[in-house]
Design brief:
heterodimer, A: about 70 residues, mainly beta, 5 strands, about 10% helix, about 35% strand, B: about 600 residues, Aldehyde Ferredoxin Oxidoreductase,  A, domain 1, 24 helices, globular
Chain lengths: ~70, ~600
C-alpha cells in the first residue's frame, strides 16, 4: 500500500518534506517512525489524515501520515 | 537561608530566610531572619510572596502601601541547573479586574542576578513606600553579613536597560544587576515595564543579551518606587555538583521537553523557536492579531528560511545545558557574522513578528530589541500593538494613532518607541484599557487584563485559569496540538490536576524547562534538595505546596474583584470561529461552558477555605 508521509521541523533535515512510501498491509505508525529513525525524544505528534494518531494505529492504503516534533514550552 | 532540620514539611519553622525591608521614604532598613511558616515559605518565590501580598488590601498598584518583593527560590544559586531565577512580586499596574482593583502578580527572570543576590547573604528584599529621588540599591556581601546601601541614580536616568547595566558594571565589575529601562522610569504612562537581569554573556560581550522578568509591569512598579536598578555584589559560591545531581542533570538534558530545545547540531529541535514548525501545519500560528489565514505566511519565519539571510547562534543561560534560545545576527557580505540583532524566542518573535504582520526576521528582531532596551514586556506590547493594527484595519477612515496597519514596520516601530519612552499612554496601558476606550473589546487578546501568549486561545482553554500570564502559569498551551485532546473531561484534568504544576518552578528557583512535563514534585528535585541541603521531602508534599500556592493566587484574583465571567476568552473567539484552524473546535460556547462548570466544581471546594 502507498502511504504519503509528511515530515515537519527538524525531521526534514537529511530526510524529506513529503514522500510516498510503500508499506505492506497491516503496518502501523511505529513502523514508519522506526524506518525513518525518528528519535523518540523529539517525537511529538502523529496524525493520520489530519486526525491525531497513536504509534500503534494501523495505516491504510492512501493514508497521509504527518510526523511532527514535540511541542513543549515557548 | 538557615536550615536546622532535615524535615521541612513538619518543621518549616526550623528553616529561616534573611529578609531586608527598606522604607524608601525614610531609608530605614529592617533586617530579620524569618522562620518559615510552611513549605511554601521554604520553597520561596511567589509561594512566599503571595502569602505576604494576601495580608495587604491594595486598591491601586501605584500606592505607597503596595510593596515590591524581590526574592529567590530555594534552588536559586544552588548546584541545580537553571537555578538562576529571581522573582518580583507586587500588585500589578496592568493586570486588574473590572472592579478597578490591581491583581497580585509575580514575574520571574534568569540571568545571574538572582544567584549573586543569594550569595550576598540575602533571600528577600521588600521595598516599601517610594524614594523621593531616583536611587539604585547596592546589596553587598561583607564579612559580617549582607549590607545594603541606597545611592543616587540621576546618572542612570534615560538610559536603556542595557546601558544602565553596563554603566553600573564599570563601577561594580564583580556584581550582577537588575534594571528598568525608560519604560519603567515613565511608569505613569507605561504599565507593562519589565525588569532586565544581567547575564554573564552580556557583561563579557557587551551585547545586550539580557534576561527579563517581563510580565505584569513589575518594572513599572520599580520605577514608581523611584528605584532604577539593583546591584548584587558577592563572590561566586557555586555548590560542588555531586554525582547524584549530575545524574539528574543528564536526565534533564536528555529527557522531557528539554531534548526538543537542544541545538539542532546536538540532535535537538533548535530552541523554543521550533514551535513555529509544529503549529503551522494546523494553521495555529498567531497571525495578524490571532487570526491565522490558512496560508503559508508564518513559514517565512521558519528557521530554514531565516538562516538563508541571517546568522543564528544557539545559546544557553549560565551553566545550563538546555540551550533553549537563539541569538540572531546580521550577516556581512563576506558571509561572516555581523552585528547582534536580538534574542530569538518563540513568544516575542511571534508577537512582534507574524502576529503583527511582520515576516522579516531582521525587522521582528529589531522590534524585540527595542522592547528589550526600553524594558517593556514584549508580550503585552506585541498584543497591544496587534489590537491597534486590527482596529485600524477595521476603521481605515478613522484609525488610531499614526494609522499603522499590519506589516507596516516603520509605523509599528514608531508606536513602540513612543510607548517605550512613555509618550503614548494609550498603548502603554495595555490592550484591556485601550479596547475599553475604543469600545471594541471583542478582539483584545487579554484574559483578566493580561495579554495572552503566542498560542491561539482556540488551542488552549486553560488560558482562562492561568493566574500570572497565559503560558507561564498554566502549562496547557500545547495540549490540543500535541495530543489532540478534545473532550471536556480530559481538559478538566489538564487544568485542575496536571498543568497548573508549571507554577512550581516559580517557587523553587528553577526554569520551567528543567522538567516542563512533570513540574517540581519529582524525584529529580528531591534528589537535589537532599544533595544540596540534606532535606528529606516527599515529592507529593511539594506538589501539595505548589497547588496551595496556585489556589492562593486564584483566591487573590477573586478578592481583587474578579468574577467567574472574567475567566473567559475575547468574544471574537466564539462569535467568529476561525475556519482556517485545522484542529478540533474546543473553544465554542458549549464546550467552554461545560468545561467551566466542571473546573469550578473542582476549584470551588478548595478556594472556599483559602481567604
Amino acid at each position: 500500500m502507498n502511504i504519503t508521509v509528511s515530515l515537519h521541523g527538524v525531521f526534514r533535515i537529511d530526510r524529506f518534506k513529503l514522500k510516498i512510501l510503500e508499506y505492506p498491509e497491516g503496518c502501523c505508525v511505529q513502523k514508519v517512525i522506526d524506518d525513518l529513525q525518528i528519535p523518540a525524544t523529539l517525537l511529538g505528534t502523529t496524525l493520520i489524515n489530519k486526525v491525531h494518531a497513536k504509534s500503534s494505529d494501523i495505516l491504510h492504503d492512501g493514508d497521509t501520515l504527518m510526523i511532527l516534533p514535540l511541542l513543549e514550552g515557548g | 537561608m538557615k536550615i536546622e532540620t532535615t524535615d521541612p514539611v513538619n518543621h518549616p519553622e526550623l528553616i529561616s530566610y534573611r529578609r531586608c525591608t527598606i522604607n524608601l521614604k525614610t531609608g530605614k532598613q529592617q533586617w530579620k531572619d524569618v522562620p518559615c511558616r510552611n513549605l511554601e515559605d521554604v520553597l520561596g518565590g511567589f509561594g512566599r510572596s503571595f502569602q505576604m501580598l494576601a495580608e495587604r488590601e491594595i486598591k491601586a498598584a501605584y500606592c505607597p502601601e503596595n510593596p515590591l518583593i524581590i526574592n529567590t527560590g530555594l534552588l536559586t544559586g544552588s548546584s541545580a541547573m537553571t537555578g538562576l531565577r529571581t522573582y518580583f512580586s507586587s500588585y500589578s499596574p496592568i493586570k486588574g479586574s473590572k472592579a478597578g482593583l490591581p491583581a497580585a502578580m509575580w514575574s520571574a527572570g534568569s540571568g545571574k542576578f538572582g544567584a549573586k543576590f543569594k550569595w550576598a547573604g540575602l533571600d528577600e528584599l521588600i521595598l516599601e513606600n517610594c524614594a523621593d529621588t531616583p536611587q539604585y540599591i547596592v546589596i553587598r556581601e561583607t564579612g559580617s553579613g549582607p549590607h545594603i546601601e541606597l545611592k543616587p541614580a540621576e546618572h542612570l536616568l534615560g538610559l536603556s536597560t542595557h546601558d544602565k547595566i553596563m554603566t553600573l558594571h564599570k563601577e561594580y565589575p564583580d556584581a550582577h544587576f537588575a534594571a528598568i529601562g525608560q519604560a519603567g522610569e515613565n511608569w505613569q504612562n507605561v504599565y507593562m515595564g519589565s525588569v532586565a537581569l544581567s547575564t554573564v554573556n552580556q557583561l563579557k560581550s557587551g551585547d545586550d543579551k539580557l534576561r527579563f522578568a517581563g510580565r505584569g509591569g513589575m518594572g513599572s512598579i520599580m520605577g514608581y518606587k523611584n528605584i532604577v536598578a539593583l546591584v548584587a555584589q558577592s563572590t561566586d559560591k557555586h555548590t560542588p555538583i555531586t554525582p547524584e545531581v549530575k545524574a539528574v542533570h543528564t536526565q534533564v538534558i536528555k529527557g522531557g521537553g528539554a531534548a526538543r530545545l537542544q541545538p539542532i547540531k546536538r540532535g535537538g529541535g533548535g530552541g523554543t523557536w521550533a514551535a513555529y514548525d509544529v503549529m503551522q501545519p494546523f494553521h495555529a500560528v498567531p497571525v495578524n492579531n490571532y487570526r491565522p489565514q490558512g496560508n503559508d505566511l508564518p513559514e517565512k519565519l521558519f528557521r530554514e528560511n531565516v538562516e538563508k539571510e541571517y546568522d543564528i547562534e544557539s545559546a544557553a543561560c549560565h551553566r545550563c545545558g538546555i540551550t533553549c534560545h537563539n541569538y540572531i545576527y546580521d550577516r556581512k557580505d563576506d558571509g561572516s557574522r555581523g552585528d547582534f540583532i536580538a534574542k530569538f524566542d518563540y513568544e516575542p518573535l511571534n508577537l512582534l513578528g507574524t502576529n503583527i504582520g511582520i515576516h522579516d526576521a531582521g525587522q521582528a528582531g529589531r522590534l524585540i530589541h527595542l522592547c528589550d532596551n526600553y524594558g517593556v514586556d514584549a508580550i503585552s506590547m506585541g498584543v497591544t500593538i496587534s489590537y491597534t493594527l486590527s482596529y485600524n484595519e477595521r476603521h481605515p477612515e478613522k484609525p488610531l494613532f499614526n494609522g499603522a496597519v499590519f506589516g507596516d514596520y516603520d509605523k509599528i516601530r514608531e508606536l513602540i518607541i513612543q510607548a517605550g519612552e512613555g509618550k503614548l499612554l494609550d498603548i502603554g496601558q495595555g490592550s484591556m484599557r485601550l479596547s475599553e476606550q475604543t469600545g471594541e473589546t471583542g478582539y483584545a487578546y487579554h484574559i483578566k487584563g493580561l495579554e495572552i501568549a503566542a498560542y491561539l486561545p482556540e488551542t488552549n482553554p486553560g488560558y482562562c485559569w492561568a493566574i500570572a500570564g497565559g503560558h507561564m502559569s498554566m502549562g496547557s498551551y500545547g495540549t490540543l496540538i500535541r495530543e489532540g485532546l478534545s473532550d471536556v473531561d480530559s481538559w478538566v484534568k489538564v487544568i485542575t490536576e496536571d498543568k497548573l504544576h508549571i507554577v512550581g518552578f516559580d517557587l523553587i528557583g528553577l526554569c520551567k524547562f528543567f522538567d516542563i512535563t512533570q513540574g517540581i514534585g519529582t524525584d529529580k528535585i528531591t534528589t537535589i534538595l537532599k544533595s544540596d541541603f540534606n532535606l528529606d521531602i516527599d515529592p507529593l508534599k511539594i506538589k501539595e505546596a505548589v497547588r496551595r500556592s496556585f489556589l492562593l493566587g486564584m483566591a487573590l484574583e477573586f478578592r481583587q474583584g474578579y468574577t467567574k465571567s472574567d475567566f473567559s476568552f475575547p468574544a471574537e473567539v466564539a462569535n467568529e470561529p476561525n475556519p482556517n484552524i485545522e484542529l478540533p473546535n474546543i473553544s465554542n460556547p458549549n464546550f467552554m461552558n461545560e468545561l467551566a462548570e466542571k473546573v469550578w466544581a473542582v476549584f470551588d471546594k478548595e478556594l472556599a477555605d483559602m481567604i
